[in-house]
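Q: My labmate handed me this sequence with no annotations at all. I'd like to see what the chain might look like in three dimensions before we decide whether it's worth expressing. Could you predict it?
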Amino acid sequence: MQLRPRQREFVDKCLRALEKNGDTVGVAPTGAGKTVMLAAITKEVGGRSLVLQHRVELVTQNRRTFGRMAPDVITDLYTADRKEWATGTTFGMVQTLSMDKNLLTMPKLDFIVIDEAHHVAAHSYKKIVDKAMEINPDVKLLGVTATPGRGDGKGMIEMFSNVADIIKLGELVAGGFLVKPRFFVIDCCIREELSKVRVTASDFDMEQVAAIMDQSPVTMKVIEEWKDKAGDRRTVVFCSTVLHAQHVCSAFQSSGVKANWISGEMPMPDRIDILQRFDKGLVQVVVNVAVLTEGWDCQPVSCVVLLRPCSYKSTMIQMIGRGLRKVDPEVYPGIVKDDCVVLDFGYSLVKHGSIEAGASINGSCEEDQFQTCPDCGTVCPASEEFCPMCDKQLIIPVEPVKEDEEEKLPMPIKVPTLEDFRLREVELLDASPYKWQDLFDGLATVANGMTAWAVIVYYNEKWVAIGKIDDPQTGKRPARLLAISGKENRPAALASADDFLREYGDAEAAKKTKRWLTQPATEKQLQLLGYEQVSAFGVTKYLASCQLTWQFNEREIQRLVLKS
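A: Here is what I predict for the chain of 564 residues:
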């Protein structure tokens, strides 16, 4: 498995911070490949390591990904069902390992990784880390999270001294790894009232928010704007209180929309049932109160409605992120998703600005520059406007001249142009370890990774990405749909296809700098392609291998393209 350039940069920065400080946090949102980077760092640190998770599905996912990154490292599990320490890397459940009798079995560890590290405020994490440090005071500590702080940094600051790197959602959107958000700030003439709401230690006082936003005129405006801008989209709505969610859900239902609401107070089986029906498309709108902010993803979501203000940018980004995942067409056949509509009725985007600010596909490989937060003492990248731990404003932006600010709503957001997409595509092609070869005047583009191949095909005004593993050791597997994107969003399909090859291809054998790629095609290749030697001028070994890949798999490719 090969890392993307931005993933490689993230790994290197975390390794440098660990070497210098003994601890660090790496911030990586949905779509960044957090598990892949976590595995790469663990492999390169070496020694005996522990990866801590608080959810069973993360244990399985992290161990499986680690196995692809470091197949020669011995791994094992420390969970409720199996309690074994590996000589290499152990994947453990916090709830199990934090029990006193289980802590007594802990060997000397060289490295601890805490996945979703914003949960470290829990006493169970501290017990495990304290025990590891008691055994080995030099144990290194890495936290990986999408959201390091909730505004007070509680727990994180006690365990970590610095943040090594922060991958922004905007970078992933620019790279084609997430769909682009389309923002609308809807003015319901309540902005002044919301500005007076009391801010608690964790967020706005939601009872006060509900008193302002849970009113029939506002709710009717919500339904009206949603039908106008996103009426055919699967939607998640964030409300302030349970009663507010119930009222909004009833309004959707009364207007003929299949909607349900959920909250943390609802019995788990009922909540799971509603989310499963939403995932299957039997429910179009799910309204929630602080339940779906993290730890939940439903790829078909293409509209996020914010019916509450967010005092912290990290909370807003979490909510918006629920709608930015690309769709796996094998799991959700027939769904094409190129963007996500964000309807903001709480003016959070006005307060915090666009999540795409400072987006870059390549990141920066220059000497690291850092700053220290004057409030909590955390060392973080110098480019950050806010401290990732405590949300203290570090860089004071220059205020633009205000010209009747209310008349500017909805907020104007730059829509990517065709030139933006072309630039993205060039950057993706340059960054890829594989050589992408155009066929049929660019209607198809193929890359052969020896142990796997991938292709993107233009058909019926959309781009279809297809990949196949072709490894003699594991046997041939059927080709599969990787992504479907609109006609002007070719880079999104290309990004999915390139990611597939990075995971399953042989980058060394197919590396685009290899000399054999530019050598003339062999006689056998030309015979298989039906070329006469005299008419094969300029046909290289690699071009021939791509053409043969298409020829041998054309029926399978055609079947999947038509299926899309």
